[in-house]
Amino acid sequence: MTQRLKVVEAPNAVWAALQQEAAQVAKDEPSLASLVNAVIIRHDTLSRALSYQLARKLGDQELRAMSLRETAEEAYTADPSIIAKAEADLRAVYDRDPACKGYLQPFLYFKGFLALQTYRVAHWLNAEGRVPLALYLQSRVSELFQVDINPAAVIGSGVFVDHGTGIVIGETAVVGDDVSMLQGVTLGGTGAEWGDRHPKIGKGVLLGAGAKVLGNIHIGDYAKVASGSVVLKDVPAGCTAAGVPARLVNCPTCEEPAKSMDHTLADVVYDYVI
């Protein structure tokens, strides 16, 4: 049985742990030695390794890997918070996914993590007025990972995108820090109107598999949206919304559902209080 590695909290702990894990894999599984050396071991910083990994995954005939890597490194140099967020995202995956045995696994293989990191570069490009390239990266991520995040959306740090498949996040959506979302989540609009039309997700919210949150509504801090629910109204902080259309279920059940991955529901159902 594979054991989860003990993570030591310290400056650059994630990068140090990632290098250690890569070295161990190279030793234990020689067939993967070339991969982990190219992606991690040969680099001296998390930013250089991440830019290489994104370029390796996303480069194609239209946008060569080297050009994409230069773009990512330009973004990281201009805005160091992007790498700080990437580190927080890696911690979030390890802390909340019991199937994750270390940092190497999401860094190499988890499309939710890779899609989110590509979005962060695209978001920087969009803010710099380089919209065509930002939209190109959005398209590539959608093609490769089945995750569609508009580069104009605002997403905080420590975000866990589990599995990733089928996630859609619209142009004016806002996602707070420490949010967890599973496959099939949609943060969408409700019509063809222009302007601010997408959900605002608070800190520490848990969005269950297949949850649809539609319109310019607010999901309060540490709230939960149950799997398969369709939410069309605000959800107060700490409450759970469940059903189609969603209603409130027991406010609250735990303090930080996104970190505990608590999907449980209470038996009592309450009508919305507007």
Q: What report would you give on this structure?
A:
This protein is α/β, with parallel strands linked by helices and 274 residues long. The protein folds into 2 domains: 11-146, serine acetyltransferase, domain 1; 153-274, Hexapeptide repeat proteins (UDP N-Acetylglucosamine Acyltransferase, domain 1, 3 Solenoid). It is built from 9 helices and 16 strands. It is globular, with a radius of gyration of 19 Å. It starts with 12 loop residues before the first helix and ends with a strand. The model is unreliable at 5-9 (pLDDT under 50).
Brief summary:
The protein is of the alpha/beta class. 40% of the residues lie in helices and 15% in strands. It has helices at residues 13-28, 33-41, 46-58, 65-78, 81-96, 104-109, 111-127, 131-145, 257-260, and strands at residues 147-149, 154-155, 160-161, 167-169, 174-175, 180-181, 186-188, 200-201, 206-207, 212-214, 218-219, 224-225, 230-231, 240-243, 246-249, 269-270.
Keywords:
2 domains; alpha/beta; UDP N-Acetylglucosamine Acyltransferase, domain 1; serine acetyltransferase, domain 1; five-stranded parallel beta sheet; 274 residues; seven-stranded mixed beta sheet
Main sheet record: 7 strands, mixed
What does the oligomeric state look like here?
A: single chain
The total count of strands amounts to 16
N-end to C-end Cα span: 50 Å
The total count of helices amounts to 9
CATH class call of the largest domain: Mainly Alpha
Any idea what the CATH architecture of the largest domain is? Answer: Orthogonal Bundle
CATH topology description of the largest domain: serine acetyltransferase, domain 1
Order of helices and strands: HHHHHHHHEEEEEEEEEEEEEEEHE
* Overall body shape: globular
